[in-house]
Every structure is written in C-alpha cells, then in structure tokens.
Amino acid sequence: MATTQTAPNSICISKYLNSLSQTPQRLRKRMLATWTPDQELNQVRQRSGADMKRKLQWYDLVALGVGGMLGVGVFVTTGTAALEKSGPSVFISFIIAGISALLSSLCYTEFSVQIPVAGGAFSYLRVTFGEFVGYFAGANILMEYVLSNAAVARTFTEYLSSAFGVHNSTTAWRVQVDGLIKGYDMLDFPAVALILLLTLCLCHSTKESSILNLTMTVFHVVFFAFIIIAGFLHGNSNNMVRPDGLTPHGVRGLLDGAAGVYFSYIGYDSVSTMAEEIQNPSKSLPVGIVGSVLIVSVLYCLMALSLCFMVPYNKISESASFSMAFQHIGWKWAANVVGAGACLGIIASLLVAMLGQARYLCVLGRARLVPPWFAQVHPSRGTPLNATLFLGLCTATIALFTELKIVVEMINLGVLLVFYLVANALIYRKYVMISHNPPSHTFMFLFLLSSCALGFSISWQFHQQWWNLSIFGGSMIIITALFQYMVPCLRQDTEWSVPFMPWPAAMSVFLNVFLMSTLKMSAFQTFGIWACLITLFYVLYGVHSTYKAEEFEMGVNEVNPNSSILLPKVDIQVI
C-alpha cells in the first residue's frame, strides 16, 4: 500500500528533476519571449475562464486614482519628509515627485490604451522586453502593493486612535510583545481587521467597491478643503522660514524628500489595472490616469503647505502629523475630526491598491508564472477571487507586525525601478516595434541616457562640482535631441499617444534613476535579496510552467486546430 502511494510522488519528483536539467535551454527560449497585444487582449485573458465585468466609467477611474493616492501621500509620508528631509519646503518635494509621476503616468497611459488588460506594467513590459523583464516588474509591483498596503493600514490605527482623542497614537491600540525584534514587536490588530474587511468587500464586486470609493473620495476632498483653508487661515506664514529657513537641509534635502514622498503617487498604477473593467478604455484611461495625478499633485502641495503653516517643521509629529498640528494651534476638536477624515482617506487608498494588487497576481497566473489557481475569475461576481483572498491574507500578516519605516524605502525603490522600465519600454516600442528602426540605435540611446542619469546621480551623491552635474545633464539633453533628429518615429492611428516623444519618456528615465540614487543603501540591500528570491522562483518554477503551457497549447492546435475550448497557438516573438 505504501509503495502504491509513493509511486506517483516519485514520478512527479522525477519529472521535475528532468525539467530542471533542461533549465538552460528553456531559459534561452522563454526569457526574451514576447506576446503581441492581440494575444494579451484575447488568448491570455481567456485563461481566467470568465471575463471581468465592464462597468466602470471615466469618473470611476478618476475617483479610484485620487482615492488611491490621497490617503497614502498626505497622511503617511508628509510628516516624516518635512521633519527629517525637506523642512518647510516639503511642498517643493511633492512638486518634484509629482513631475516625475506625471511623466511616468504618460508612459503608462499610452500602453494602457494600446493594451487594455489588467496586467499593467507586467503586460506592457512582457510585450516589449520579454517574459522575464515583465515577470520581474510584476513581482516588484506586487511586493510594493503588499508592503505599502500593510504600512498604510498601520497608519490607519494611529489616526483612528487620534480620532478618539488618544494623544500617544504610536503605541495606542497596539499590543507590544516582548521578545520580538524592535520594529516588529507592536502587533496591530485594527489594521488586520481593516484589511480583512476590505478583502471581503473586494471579493464581492468591483462596481460596488468603486461606488464605495467614489463616495468616500468626495467626502475626502471636502475634508481636504477644510484642512487647507483652516491651515492657511489659522496658521502662521513665519513658520515657513523658522527656525532654519525654507530649506534647512538645502537642495539635497528637497530631493531626498522627493524620493521619500514618491510612495505617495503609486495609486495611478492601480487605475491601469482596471482596463478590463472599463466600458471605453481608449478615452477613459487617459483621463483617469493623467487627471488623477494632476488633481492629487495640487492637493498634496496645498496640504503640505497648510501643515507647515500650522507647525514649525521641527515640531511636526511623525505619526498622525495633521491631527497633532491642529492640537498645536489649539483646535483639539479639529484634531479628532482630522483623525476621522484621515481614516476615511486611508480606507479609500487601501481599497484601490488592493483592487490593483489582485489583478496583477491574476495576470501573472494567466501567464503561468505563478500557479494558475490565482488566475481564476469568479463567474458571477467577475472578480479575481483567489488572488484577492491570498494577497489580503499576506497583507494582513505583514500589517500585524511591521512598522512603516522598515518598508517605505524598499517600496520607493521598487516603484521607481518599475516606472524606469516602463519609460524605457515605451521608447523601444515606439521607435523599434512600431517604427521598425534598427534596435541597436534605440538600445544605444537608452544605454547612454541611463549612463548620463547615473553619472549625474553619482556626482550629486558624492558632492562633486556643479560643472560635473552640468556635463551629465547637458549630455542627456544633447543625446535626446540627436536621437529625436536622427531616428524617425511613425505617428500611430490611435486615439491617444504621448506627445513630444522621446522627451517625456527620456525625462522620466532620468528622474527615476536620480530619485533611486537618493535612497539609503539598506533599501538596495533588501531589494537585492528580494530580487534574488523572485529570480530563483522564476528559474525553479516560472520558466518551466510557461514552457509547458506553450507546449500544451501547441499540441492542442496540432490535434484540434478548430478547438473553441482551448487556446489557439501562441506565436512567440523574440526581441
């Protein structure tokens, strides 16, 4: 009996070991394998079984983008950035980060119009640079979503305690456990409860979740207007220049602050993952993505200014900073109201981000880079049920233990890297895949562009002379101008495309590299460990799973080319 039970296990292990022995050949075939937009839109999407329901309009997208960014940016990052990096000029840091986010959002928008699927950056990079780059970006976006959602949920607890008049919001309503490592020893059960509640809501219906977000976002914007007006009317403009001037840490502090608050703009990426649930993607996506970034950028700057009007930067609280600011000016009742309003914004932000993270995992499952169980869409609700539940549990587990400071730098690095890759992909796609120019010209431009950005960033970090910075910055401008002049770009017959190419994408590349260079070394070390882990998973599982999926589909087409149940043959292109 025991022999009978172990026989299937032995066969499975033997097959897997045989697959591992073929890893080099499979890596050569799969790593650079790309899919066409048509395959992403049709064949790959069919792997989820049921389609997602197309119920969203452009205003739903704007509300999702605004709701997804507002709660994260103002209530999580502003206080820390002002206190430790930018000082009263934190609003300028938000402007710099907003410009970079706007440029990246333009790149996202063109891709989302041409490839309106739920995969976001993963799908855009897979059709351009191949399977591995797409997988690497998708895994990083997933990491960023899970960590940022956990961090934001813990901030919810701080503002909730503030809403009930608790002054020590950092430790209130949390349980300290002796013996655990510092930074992981404060258990946050309200954050866990919030995430699990939102997970159940998202499993039910996307449209109902969108209506809930729209309602909360409207109230949230009104609440923001109250904070801005109150801050300007009852604050003191002298706080903008005392005790150490507008920029106490100089230009470096401004730019370090910009990298620190970039985490605030990640919500628009969630909008692009809604592409399969929008009634008119080509018109709604540009409005939703770009419009939400512009609206949020203006609100961020005004909120940051109002905070610094109310409190000198060196007295801003790291936790629940806006509530503490109102207490500073003597409005204790307003501090409670701000705590409640911040909770509302954080809930809206979490709702949008958790929508996005589930759709990323769903599309990775369709591609067979993770188990296909994650790709299943509920036939009646039209939601990626399995992916939503799994990531909700992961987020809740991390939120239970982990403090914001531990993960925020790694989140920023992961986001900036993905946006950097998307900007490169847009240039390559427009100038090589669409305009049919030799790839070597574009690859050389991208290499020189990144080299100039890296040289500028290193010179900045090592406090080199200004003429060094001028050389690298000027070289970037000259290289981009020469590329635009020498390499033609065909205009596309699409309803929307990025204007003035390649300048927006080139500037996005430059800014993303520069902002990455301002992050701490610990972020790169942690990210290096994460990169090794996801690469190992790809080598041990992903490449073999996608290889077998391709073999299966090709075999089905040879046996039954007219099958309507299984997928048609996949034409793999290698860049």
Automatic annotation (TrEMBL):
<feature type="transmembrane region" description="Helical">
    <location>
        <begin position="61"/>
        <end position="83"/>
    </location>
</feature>
<keyword id="KW-0472">Membrane</keyword>
<dbReference type="Pfam" id="PF13906">
    <property type="entry name" value="AA_permease_C"/>
</dbReference>
<feature type="transmembrane region" description="Helical">
    <location>
        <begin position="440"/>
        <end position="460"/>
    </location>
</feature>
<keyword id="KW-0812">Transmembrane</keyword>
<protein>
    <recommendedName>
        <fullName>Cationic amino acid transporter C-terminal domain-containing protein</fullName>
    </recommendedName>
</protein>
<feature type="transmembrane region" description="Helical">
    <location>
        <begin position="186"/>
        <end position="204"/>
    </location>
</feature>
<dbReference type="GO" id="GO:0015171">
    <property type="term" value="F:amino acid transmembrane transporter activity"/>
</dbReference>
<feature type="transmembrane region" description="Helical">
    <location>
        <begin position="498"/>
        <end position="517"/>
    </location>
</feature>
<feature type="transmembrane region" description="Helical">
    <location>
        <begin position="123"/>
        <end position="143"/>
    </location>
</feature>
<feature type="transmembrane region" description="Helical">
    <location>
        <begin position="410"/>
        <end position="428"/>
    </location>
</feature>
<feature type="transmembrane region" description="Helical">
    <location>
        <begin position="333"/>
        <end position="356"/>
    </location>
</feature>
<dbReference type="InterPro" id="IPR029485">
    <property type="entry name" value="CAT_C"/>
</dbReference>
<feature type="transmembrane region" description="Helical">
    <location>
        <begin position="523"/>
        <end position="541"/>
    </location>
</feature>
<feature type="transmembrane region" description="Helical">
    <location>
        <begin position="466"/>
        <end position="486"/>
    </location>
</feature>
<feature type="transmembrane region" description="Helical">
    <location>
        <begin position="287"/>
        <end position="313"/>
    </location>
</feature>
<dbReference type="GO" id="GO:0005886">
    <property type="term" value="C:plasma membrane"/>
</dbReference>
<feature type="domain" description="Cationic amino acid transporter C-terminal">
    <location>
        <begin position="496"/>
        <end position="545"/>
    </location>
</feature>
<feature type="transmembrane region" description="Helical">
    <location>
        <begin position="89"/>
        <end position="111"/>
    </location>
</feature>
<feature type="transmembrane region" description="Helical">
    <location>
        <begin position="385"/>
        <end position="404"/>
    </location>
</feature>
<dbReference type="InterPro" id="IPR002293">
    <property type="entry name" value="AA/rel_permease1"/>
</dbReference>
<keyword id="KW-1133">Transmembrane helix</keyword>
<dbReference type="Pfam" id="PF13520">
    <property type="entry name" value="AA_permease_2"/>
</dbReference>
<feature type="transmembrane region" description="Helical">
    <location>
        <begin position="211"/>
        <end position="233"/>
    </location>
</feature>
<comment type="similarity">
    <text>Belongs to the amino acid-polyamine-organocation (APC) superfamily. Cationic amino acid transporter (CAT) (TC 2.A.3.3) family.</text>
</comment>
